[in-house]
Write a structure and sequence with these properties.
CATH superfamily: Hypothetical Protein Pfu-838710-001
CATH architecture: Beta Barrel
Number of domains: 1
Helix content: 10-25%
CATH topology: Hypothetical Protein Pfu-838710-001
Distance between the termini: 27 Å
Number of strands: 9
Structural class: alpha+beta
Length: 211
């Protein structure tokens, strides 16, 4: 179970203000490309599941993930998440020809689970009725910061076809404590914020920036 605190920033100015305040804690910045997949009959979305391929810094790294049963309440996100690194060239091939994801069901725990639970993919005698489709996606610039008390903060600038959004995330086993600490920091630095109400994927699916 991945547990994160998520704050939405209203605009680029707030993002820049927070980026400046966090500069002493900066560890690295990633350029991310996120592509999402479903079955041809919507098998994943019908069960509130999301399959994603994420490329880091061009093709330096590629991660396949499956997210299930996501909940986002008062700025705290809880979601079951499974991740696997795959070869970036294979990831690009799956984006170009999504049916290739189904061929990974024998070697990938994620795709094996998708085949068994949702009936998508497989090959040979394991082949099911539905295949994968690529839904598209978005790009994200993520600044990573080593903050107080061992917390790692991720500051995102997400670029959709229809606009940009800004968000601060912190994965933690003590979300209420981290949330209180972060709110105090944001208030101290004069950074406007609100609790995130929707995931980046939900915004992408809506096709518009959500309030």
């Amino acid at each position: 179970m991945e547990v994160e605190v998520k704050f939405r920033l209203p605009n680029a100015a707030a993002h820049q203000r927070l980026s400046d305040a966090l500069a002493p804690f900066h560890l690295r910045t990633h350029m991310q490309e996120n592509l999402f997949f479903d079955g041809s009959a919507g098998e994943l979305s019908n069960h509130f599941a999301v399959a994603r391929i994420r490329f880091y810094d061009g093709d330096s790294r590629c991660v396949l993930s499956l997210k299930l049963r996501a909940r986002l309440v008062d700025g705290i996100s809880r979601v079951e998440e499974i991740e696997e690194d795959i070869d970036p060239a294979l990831g690009r091939a799956c984006v170009a020809e999504p049916w290739r994801l189904g061929c990974l069901s024998a070697s990938s725990k994620i795709m094996g689970r998708v085949r068994d639970e949702f009936g998508i993919g497989g090959e040979g005698e394991e082949k099911r009725g539905s295949s994968f489709i690529c839904l598209g996606g978005f790009r994200n610039v993520r600044g990573v910061y080593g903050w107080k008390e061992g917390l790692t903060l991720e500051l995102d600038e997400t670029r959709y076809d229809f606009g940009a959004s800004y968000e601060l995330e912190c994965e933690t086993g003590e979300p209420e404590k981290a949330k209180e600490m972060l709110e105090g920091f944001l208030l101290e630095k004069g950074v406007e914020y609100s609790y995130s109400k929707a995931s980046k994927f939900a915004v992408f699916k809506a096709g518009k920036l959500l309030p």
